[in-house]
Specification:
Number of strands: 6
Structural class: mainly alpha
Distance between the termini: 66 Å
Helix content: 55-70%
Strand content: under 5%
Largest sheet: 6 strands, mixed
Strand order of the largest sheet: 2-1-3-4-5-6
């Protein structure tokens, strides 16, 4: 049997082959999708018999010799009737028969299986009194009894007191230590065994390999494998089964397969180990192949093989084969096995068959339907988008007295907004789960999604053992609200505590550096860190880098990241299209989109928002309409509010306000505030009072406290000299207590951010800044610059208007940048409002006079000034 490359068509085909060749008939009647409760009422066990008590049945038996009764003991033992062994031994003892070593070893074995430590101690005392403890079989059975009852100390004492030991004694000791989790001690005992010259058998090697597997000591395991081969046990079933398990748990698939293929005598455990190991390592097609050959080999299906194969069906969402396996489970009588039931329930959940999953869940006995089953069912509902049912089941769970565990809380907290994080937080505190990493992380994520980062931070601080998931979630929380400083603080704290970031950590912190207030160099430093950590090629990291560079005004670096991406998803393509559009490179954005179409890549509504925005920022009204039609008619994407807003912006910027109104009137839903704000801004630019007044009325009715509505309206009246109406709007703002947002700009110089308001004189270098502005004013006039005072919306004289223009916040920021950085250094300014037309002209001229590249990010887009030109082409 050889390995195959997993593909979806092959999975489907292999599943069909299995269904046809196994002849597993799928019965459609209801009973196959249900299980039946059978009341199993074991007889209450009586107290352990005392050696002084006689067994009544034994008294009625004819007198026989010890050989006969030993024969009965061994027969009961072979039939696993261990209570019968104990009762029969009591009768033998009472009748005064001579008891030999084989009798004692048989009854001690029964005590091991019954976990009857008290009776075992009585047998131990009898062994001491009768002097039979020197018998190696008795000593071995005694230490085995103690070890299986988790009494390691007594088991070791029994071993040390043995007069003679054989390989079985050593193997029992090693197996007992391994089963009690004492793996290091197991290995030490194995080395001592070898030193004492005792030759191991296959069962010895099986115990040692199991201990090495649990400790993850695969290199030592390989050395033991060579010893197995040298001792002639290379094909021994028990040792080989342990080797298969070890190699699978270490991810060494080919080595596990080589051991399996070399076996001459495979039992059900061998096949089950192969199936479970392949499923664990995600080799779905190979699992089906092995399972198919297992059936061909005539191996009887045991309950151990069903759980992993059913789990596989859930992973690949193979519903048909899952149902056939369910039938086989019923046929084999394994329907009451807890693991199989839970796995079936999970598989039906993963396949979207929540009704069948709930049927299995609902008929589970109370013993099986524990907190794990409840949590799995809740998780299934959430994974299938059924949050309401998940919340209802969680409430029912509480009503039935089932106490949620940490996994339950971390699962139900994802059912936002169906559950209150405050309520779950209170419950978690009450049950002492709030310090759990999984619950704490889920809680802080729930708070972050509600925008309550302060509460999320409190939860984060209370988590005792913070894992990388918790750190990353907290960083992403700060990034989500644009708090770069908070995100960086957590990232630095994480580094100090020697926690290594993963790709999701880098994605979160890099996204935080995309905020307008973030330092320009911070993002670059984190990029370098991600390269050093070898996470820069992870899709989530490269996509975050692309977005960060784009939003920080470095579209060239953004495109370099895009080019170097080893894999790209839809987010990557959409990000570069939107980036080019925002930076005024509309043609390049459309070229990227055309490349997407040539490659037949997936396109969604976000893609078209970027494409139409690219047309908007470059004045391509006809092309924008064409792409909108392609989206609706060819791609069959239903337009959302964002698409209509883009279309209104497209026609509004082009001065086609009537067409923009047609778009609004044809919308299948009422226009949002953003749509009316876009139309009002366009009316202000093109001085269309009629449309502007309509848009302002609609906008104020939707957002009466938003100052942007009033400011745009006053600016529109001022632009046409209607000071009376402007005064009315200003008075209305005062009555409604609406305050105008001040325009300000900021610039980063030497890793420190400086903020400026219009006419600001608070900066320590204020005199030098204004001196630089005066110097620039002379140079500008010499270059033919004439101030455009139409951009001053105040009723003052022309000279005053010119003074106001010369002190706009972006000019102050640029002047400071010019005196605070070496000649030729690029400048980057951010402004919270739209750059006025006069400042736009001035900055173009400054880029020539000072020989600087200047990037200005205003509320609408990026402007790249270089050599007297702007990337927007004077269209914004």
């Amino acid at each position: 049997m050889t390995f195959k490359t997993l593909t979806k068509p092959q999975i489907k085909q292999t599943s069909k082959t299995l269904r046809s060749r196994f002849s597993l008939q799928l019965h459609t009647h209801q009973r196959l999708l249900q299980t039946h409760n059978v009341a199993l009422k074991p007889q209450s066990s009586s107290k352990p018999p005392n050696l002084s008590e006689a067994h009544p049945v034994f008294c009625k038996s004819p007198q026989q010799n010890l050989v006969y009764y030993n024969h009965l003991l061994f027969q009961c033992s072979r039939e696993n009737r261990n209570r019968g062994v104990v009762d029969l031994f009591v009768g033998i003892h009472r009748s005064g028969f001579f008891i030999d070593g084989s009798t004692l070893s048989c009854v001690l074995k029964a005590c091991s299986f019954l976990s009857d430590r008290n009776f075992g101690i009585q047998v131990h005392n009898y062994s001491l009194k009768s002097g039979l403890l020197e018998d190696v079989s008795v000593g071995t059975a005694l230490l085995d009894m103690y070890l299986k009852n988790e009494n390691v100390e007594e088991g070791r004492r029994a071993f040390d007191e043995m007069g003679a030991r054989n390989v079985v004694s050593w193997t029992s000791l090693l197996t007992g230590y391994a089963q009690n989790g004492l793996n290091v001690e197991t290995l030490k005992l194995f080395l001592r065994m070898l030193v004492e010259g005792m030759k191991p058998n296959p069962f010895t090697f099986s115990a040692v390999i199991g201990a090495l597997t649990d400790e993850g000591m695969v290199e030592a395991g390989i050395q033991v494998h060579t010893m197995v081969i040298k001792n002639g046990f290379g094909v021994a079933t028990f040792a080989s089964n342990s080797l298969i398990n070890m190699y699978f748990k270490s991810g060494m698939i080919r080595d596990a397969r080589a051991v399996f293929d070399s076996m001459t005598d495979r039992n059900a455990v061998s096949w089950n180990s192969m199936v479970a190991g392949l499923v664990t390592n995600g080799l779905h097609l190979e699992t089906l192949d092995v399972f198919y050959h297992m059936r061909l080999a005539g191996v009887k299906l045991t309950k151990m093989v069903f759980a992993p194969v059913i789990k596989l069906c859930g992973n690949i969402k193979e519903l048909g084969f899952s149902r056939q396996l369910h039938c086989q489970v019923l046929k084999g009588g394994f329907e009451y096995d807890k693991n199989i039931r839970t796995t079936l329930m999970l598989t039906y959940s993963k396949c979207g068959e929540m009704d069948n999953a709930f049927k299995i869940f609902s008929v589970m006995s109370d013993e099986v339907r524990n907190v794990v089953s409840w949590t799995a069912m809740i998780s299934g509902y959430l994974q299938n988008g059924m949050a309401e049912q998940a919340v209802n089941l969680f409430c029912q769970m509480s009503r039935e007295g089932i106490k949620p565990n940490d996994f339950t809380y971390s699962t139900i907290l994802t059912a936002q907004p169906g559950v209150s994080p405050f309520e779950m937080h209170a419950q978690a505190i009450k049950r002492n789960y709030v310090k759990s990493p999984s619950v704490g992380t889920a809680l802080l994520d729930a708070y972050v999604k509600r925008g309550n980062v302060d509460e999320a931070s409190k939860v984060f601080q209370r988590i005792e053992e913070k894992d990388i998931v918790a750190w990353s979630a907290m960083i992403c929380g700060y990034a989500q609200i644009g708090d770069t400083e908070g995100a960086v603080r957590i990232f630095v704290q994480m580094a100090k505590e020697k926690i290594k970031p993963n790709e999701y950590t880098f994605s979160g912190i890099i996204n935080a550096c995309a905020a307008p207030t973030a330092g320009v160099e911070q993002g670059k430093q984190l990029h370098a860190w991600s390269i050093k950590s070898r996470f820069n090629n992870a899709l989530c990291v490269s996509s975050a880098l692309l977005t960060m560079y784009s939003k920080r005004g470095d579209i060239e670096s953004a495109f370099e990241v895009f080019k170097r991406q080893r894999e790209r998803d839809l987010v990557s393509w959409n990000s570069i299209i939107s980036g080019y559009a925002q930076h005024g490179y509309g043609r390049k954005a459309l070229e990227v989109f055309e490349e997407m179409q040539r490659q037949n890549l997936e396109i969604d509504g976000v893609t078209f928002i970027g494409v139409i925005s690219a047309c908007t920022h470059t004045g391509l009204a006809n092309e924008g309409q064409r792409y909108f039609d392609i989206m609706v008619k060819d791609q069959h994407i239903e337009p959302r509010m964002e698409h209509y807003s883009c279309m209104v912006d497209l026609y509004g910027r082009a001065g086609m306000l009537v067409k923009a109104m047609e778009i609004i009137n044809e919308m299948p839903f009422p226009a949002s505030a953003n749509v009316w704000r876009t139309l009002l801004a366009a009316s202000c630019i093109h001085r269309n009072l009629e449309v502007g007044k309509l848009a302002a009325d609609k906008l104020i009715s939707l957002q009466p406290q938003n100052p942007a509505s009033y400011v745009l309206l006053t600016n529109m009246y001022a632009s046409v000299g209607n000071w009376k109406e402007r005064a009315k709007v200003r008075k209305l703002m005062e009555e409604k207590k609406v305050k105008k947002v001040a325009g300000y700009s900021w610039i980063e110089v030497k890793n420190k951010t400086y903020t400026f308001l219009a006419g600001d004189v608070s900066h320590p270098l204020s005199n030098q800044i204004y001196a630089k502005l005066e110097e620039l004013s002379c140079q500008l006039k010499g270059a033919g610059y004439q101030p455009d005072t139409s951009y001053v919306f105040q009723d003052v004289d022309e000279e005053h208007k010119e003074a106001i223009l010369s002190q706009h916040s972006e000019r102050l920021a640029i002047a400071f940048g010019l005196i605070g950085t070496p000649p030729g250094t690029p400048l980057q300014i951010v402004k919270n409002l739209r750059v006025c037309g006069d400042c736009h002209t001035v900055i173009k001229l400054i880029s020539i006079l000072e020989g600087r590249d200047i990037v200005v990010r205003d509320s609408n887009r990026f402007h790249h000034f270089k050599g007297g030109l702007c990337s927007c082409g004077d269209y914004w």
